[in-house]
Each structure stands twice: as C-alpha cells, then as structure tokens.
Amino acid sequence: MCGIAGIFGNSVARDDLEAMVASQHHRGPDASGVYVDPAQTAGLGHNRLSIIDLSDAGSQPMTSADGRYKIAFNGEIYNYLELRAELSDYPYRSHSDTEVILAAYQRWGEACLDRFIGMFSLLIWDETQQRLFAARDRFGVKPLYYAKSPSGQWLLASEIRALRAAGLVTQPDTTAWATYLTAGVYEHSARTFWRDVASLPAGHQLTIQNNQLEISCWYDLVQRSGQTLDTRCEDEVAEEYLALLKESTRLRFRSDVPVGVNLSGGLDSSALLGLVQELQGESSEVKAFTFVTGDERYDELPWVHQMLAHTKHPSIQCTLRPSDVPELAESVQSHQDEPFGGMPTLAYAQLFARARAEGVIVLLDGQGLDEQWAGYDYYKRVLDGTAKIQDVGTVQAAKKGATRPNCLSQEFVAAAESFQAPTRYPDALRNLQYRDAMHTKIPRALRFNDRISMRSSTELREPFLDHRLFELALRQPADRKIANGIQKRLLRKIVARLMPGGVVEAPKRPLQTPQREWLREDLRDWADANIKTALETYGGQWLDARSVRDEWDEYQKGESDNSFYVWQWINLGLCCNSMKQLVAS
Question: What global pTM score does this model have?
C-alpha cells in the first residue's frame, strides 16, 4: 500500500515531483523515491508502506531487468507468488509483487491486468516508446486522479492534494457540489468535487503518448458475470462460493507485517472472522478491532462478544466520543479532499489509528457482501415491485428525504447532474446491485476508507471484493438472495457453520453511530459553527441562508429522523476551513 505520483510532458521538474511525493508521505512513510526520464518527458514518484519484501530491493520507482520500464505501484497483487512461478524465467532481484507486475507486463502487455487478483493503481513508463500505461483495479479499491496543468503537463497521483503540490490550482466543481447537495449522489462518475480534476474509473486503463491521453475500460462486471442466470443446484453453487471465500481470505493474509480484522458484529465481518478461524485454526490470535460509541442503541458488542467467545482473538475496542469529533473531523477532512460519510468514517479513522498503535499494519474488512447478495432493505422493495430503481436513493431513507434541495438556490439546483442507474441486466434486482457496486455504495465507501486507513499509514484489504465472488453471486437467481423476507438467503446458508447461530440469524443492521443525537446535543455548537462557515462562504450562492437556518432550528428541536442533510452543510463548512488552511500554507 503506497502513494504514487507522475508528471508527463515536456521539461518535467524534479522539484515538482518531489513536492507531490512529500504531500503523500502518510501513504508510505517507510521510503520514498523519484525517477525522471533522461529526456525529462516523464517522472514517477512513490511513497512506500512496506508490506511485502521489506528490504530495499522492493523500493520504487522500480526498473525492469532490461531497464526499459519504470513502475510506481500502489496496492497488492495477492496472487503474485503463483504468477512469479508462471513467470519463472524473469531475472528477479526482489521478492516483491511489484516486480511480478513488471514481469507480467513484459510477457503479456496490457492483458496482464486480467491475470491479477488484487487491488491496484499503477503507472508504467516505457522509456523506449515514451509511453505511459496506467490502470486501476476492477472495483477501484485504490485511487488514481489526473489533471492537466496550466503548462500542458499531465499530472497523476493517489490523492488530489498531490496534484496541488505540483502547482495545480483547484476550484470547486459546482456541478459535483450541486449533485451532492440536491440528491446525495457522489463518487458515481469520473467527476470529482474539483473542477478539471478527474478520477480514473474503476476497471479502466489510461495511456499517454505524445501528450495525448486516452482512457478505455479493461474490466466490465456485467460482461464478465454475463446475463444468464446460474441453473446449477444450490449445493454446487454454495460449495464453489465457499471455496472462493476461503481462497480470497487466504490470499489476503499474504504479508510480511501483522494483519488484523475489522469486526463490527454484523454478518459480513463475522463471516470474515469465521473464515480466519477456518483457515488458521482455533489457535489464531489475529487481533479483532471494533469501533464503539458508548451508546447501546448503536454499538454491536453483543454480537462481537458472541463471535469472539471461545477464541483467542484479542478484542480491541476503539471508542469514538463526541469530544473527539471536532479535531478528528478537521484532520480527516484534510485527508479526504472531498466530502465524506460522517461519524462512521470518523469512528473508522479512530480504529485505524489504534491498529497502527497496536503494531497492526494491515486490516481486513467485510465490504461487498450486501451488494453481492442484496442485503439492503430497499432490494426487497425493488424485487417485489413496490419501488423502482430510480426511486431508491443512494443514502439511507428518511420520511422527508435525505437531502434538502429547498435550502439551495434555484440556479445551484439547476447545475446538478442527473444520475440514472444503468440498466444493463434484464432484471431490476441485478441492475440495482450493479448500481451499488460500481456507482454508489462501494465507490463511496472505498474512497472514505482508503483515505482514513492511509491517514494512519495502514493498509486496508477487502477479501469480499474479489471479482470472482462478485461474478458468481451476480449469476444467482433472485430467490437465492431474497426469499420469504430473508435477505442474503444463500449466503447465510453458506457461512452458517463459520459463526454462532445468533449472528447468522440477526437482521441486517445499518452501520450507525449516534450522529443524529450528537449533532443536536453534545456537538450542537460545533455543528452550528461549521454551518455558519458554509453560509458565510456560499450563502446566497449555493445555499439559501434563511432556509438553512430554519431547517437547522427544526432539526435541533428533534423534528427530523435524518441527519444526512445537516452533515452535508457541516461537511461543506469543514471543506471551506480546509481550503482556507491550504491557501494559508
């Protein structure tokens, strides 16, 4: 897990590249390096968080054995040992997965991506052809941003802050902000919250040659899963899926540093810990990290205790308190560069910081099974025909709606970008699953979690985002996902023997914190101050000040079952403060 940066065009300045690398130090504090092409037409930068092959031989940018290719790589290729054996004729000088990428690229070219099981964003410079090849993994676990500088150079990096470090002046993208504040939609496209800064979409590749940038799709989940439903018997499917679960988890334990597990108490993270037990046995002492808030209405400790009973896994509880929020939110915002998901993201930030303090550098998480097996409540409504995809919001439902367009100026609302969920499958359920996997739920969570894990120089791995699991799950008929009101039906059957019955049978519970209560009570003054900052900056432009104040007053009286729109205004204020600090520095 690392940070990467690149400059491509004439007269690449080493100082600019070094500034980009310095801005991403938190992503890789163990080592850093830069490479500038002899013709000064390209430069690569790298921050290293040492996970596999801790020796200097694994440092980057790395050069191929013949000297032609240079690589800056962020992520992990989990099946690198198998690929290394297949590419045994390559003259390896390290034991890293990075060098395996170079060997694979020399053997198979761009088609090497299909052979990787992993998470990655990578930059490969061909000195001979003066050509950049860049790519992002299938689900976009690892980020890659790009922009064109005023001088005409292409800038690429793991974080937007690195583009600024190279001299790029960024301005807020009104369309992105309008779409977010009116509909709660973001991370659904290549557009970012900053004008002229784009995110390379998941499963896409990018080339630059002669200063011309081209983008194409190398992985399409719909094409790979196919349109045809799986007609095999359930037992056969269950056997195949469980085998893939085990292999995916086993591969993600490949590490030369300690590995831990995020355990929320829900079905998915409990299944993950159950797989760890299955693979490592009863003697496993992998640390389990759980965030709590001290509020029994939201904390999931009863299920955590059930899961950990009779095991040797140390249980490490990471508490988020209201008093932690102001300073933590400011820090997290500075690392996010864009709006983030509220108190759950802050709670996870605490968790990653605690993991690092405990000496755990790699954490496994249970993201992905809800989208594979239709675990959210609204999937039932779409399946039974009581709701259409376009009626299902991308944030948690509320009686009055999650956002407050009435608090925005008409001109600002008109700038919003309409988002229509793709209809690429013949059935509504799979189209909704695809929407959540590739355009809404997962992209948001991945961006939040990448930044907060990297903020503490820790690596987050997602075993359930293995593409083979997704492809198999999306081929399953609807009644294997939802039947008789039970969601994730076949998945529950598959993982039942991996955990106590009480955890398997527990209903789906949203990952929540006392955000609604805290913003009305303990954090009222803090929330009010951030909303005032947002109004001072954008009142009369984006926000209708009177309407915002009226809604905020109503919220404080307890007249709302939803805090998302309040968090949006607070987050806008945090972004304003972050930009002021950026300008001041």
Answer: 0.96
